[in-house]
Design a protein that fits this description.
The protein has 284 residues and is mainly alpha-helical. It has one domain (48-263): MetI-like fold, CATH 1.10.3720.10. The chain is 74% helix and 1% strand. The chain has helices spanning 12-42, 48-51, 57-93, 98-113, 116-127, 136-162, 165-173, 178-208, 220-231, 234-264, and strands at 278-279, 282-283.
Length: 284
């Protein structure tokens, strides 16, 4: 039996002890789940009347699906604008001119440091209260755009810097200008590197739309408030909304995995079993 690289293979007593730990942990989790269900049932939260609203077609179609659509719309606009924001300021941070690089650095670091909820509140009171030009929907979009855009700016800068420097030097040696090197050499390869991070940021943007609840913006959380204030079913509402968010995030995660395998990973790996020893340019 070959030993592992990082640690010695556990002996029979250690294996038996680990199995005991795993069994005790599983029993504890099952007991905790039973306790939670018992408490919910004692509070009447598992009664059919508490869940009936989620089985009523009118509520599902008019309220829940409408709230989900608004949430997806906010996330979609936020991530599209954030990508543009990230490309612009990420490129500016790579500039050789300090008067371009320094303001871009200040903007990116500021919006990365400020919590999203504070950004929403600030945008709401600045551009929505009174006769402000923006609706609450767009206040959420603007706040998510600047925050996620600042994060994507760093992702973009790191992706460009991850391209091997030898390719850049070769492009300069061929007489290409810096803009041509960026658009033809660095950017296409950086996009492949950045794809998983961009899609992961989509998940963050989708989840952060729930913070629009604080400024009474439309979305799933706003719909959930309407439901539990009418039917007094806070726990079932929270469970249903969480299930919707989890489903959307799992779909985005599946998309990220597919993109990584399709565009980033090796689709046609070399079959090393067919490569023989070479002698004078011929296989022997």
């Amino acid at each position: 039996m070959s030993a592992t690289v990082l640690y010695d293979a556990p002996g029979p007593r250690t294996v038996r002890r680990h199995r005991i730990y795993a069994g005790v942990t599983a029993l504890a989790l099952v007991g905790l789940a039973v306790l939670v269900l018992w408490k919910l049932n004692s509070a009447g939260q598992l009664a059919y009347a508490q869940w009936e609203v989620f089985l009523t077609p009118d509520y599902v179609r008019v309220i829940l699906l409408d709230g989900l659509l608004k949430t997806l719309e906010m996330a979609f606009f936020a991530i599209v604008f954030a990508v543009v924001f990230g490309v612009v300021f990420g490129t500016a941070k790579l500039s050789e001119h300090w008067w371009i690089r320094s303001p871009a650095w200040l903007v990116v670091e500021f919006f990365r440091a400020v919590p999203v909820l504070l950004l929403m509140v600030f945008v709401f009171y600045l551009l929505s209260v009174g006769d402000g030009p923006l609706s609450k929907f767009w206040c959420v979009v603007v706040a998510l755009t600047v925050y996620n855009g600042a994060v994507l700016a760093e992702v973009f800068r790191a992706g460009v810097n991850a391209v091997p420097h030898g390719q850049v030097e070769a492009a300069y040696a061929l007489g290409l200008r810096k803009g041509q090197v960026m658009t033809t050499i660095q950017l296409p390869q950086a996009v492949r590197i950045m794809l998983p991070s961009i899609v992961s940021q989509c998940v963050v943007a989708l989840k952060d739309t729930s913070l629009g609840y604080y400024i009474v913006a439309p979305g799933l959380t706003a719909v959930g408030k309407q439901i539990y204030l009418e039917f007094f079913n806070q726990v079932p509402t929270a469970i249903v909304l969480a299930a919707l968010y989890i489903t959307c995030n799992l779909l985005l995660t599946a998309l990220a995995t597919w993109l990584q395998r399709r565009y980033v990973g090796e689709r046609n790996p070399v079959d090393t079993s067919r490569v023989g020893n070479m002698d004078g340019g011929r296989a022997v």
